[in-house]
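Researcher: Please translate sequence to structure tokens.
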Amino acid sequence: MKLSLVIPVYNESAGVTETTLNIHSALVYLRQSHDIELILVDDGSRDGTADLLRAAFADDPQVQVISHPHNRGIGAALRTGFQHVSGDIIITTDFDGSYAFSMIPQLVAKMQVDRADIVSASPYHPNGSAQGLR
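Model: Translation complete:
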């Protein structure tokens, strides 16, 4: 089963180093059991975010960095990402670390066990929370 991870990004240059390390760790883990592609959609950042992302993932052919020429909003960034996926399951998350990338395997497992079409992590769930907000 192939997973497509779509992450919209906007003006995140200050956090690229830390966040890409976390993404790399999640990809290593997920690739033990799944074929996975990562689509990063830079939504018109003006702080060099796209270039930093391209450099961070230059050696990974399963990662695409797509850039909007100007900021169009999160909905447009997600739509752009969805146009480039090839996976059986599509996962979206925020780049800023609101949700730990390490939660992705749990979400995928929940989908498979419950035969669900969609699973969502929410800070509003009784057991939910958001951490590391910047």
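Researcher: Any highlights?
Model: The chain is about 35% helix and 20% strand.
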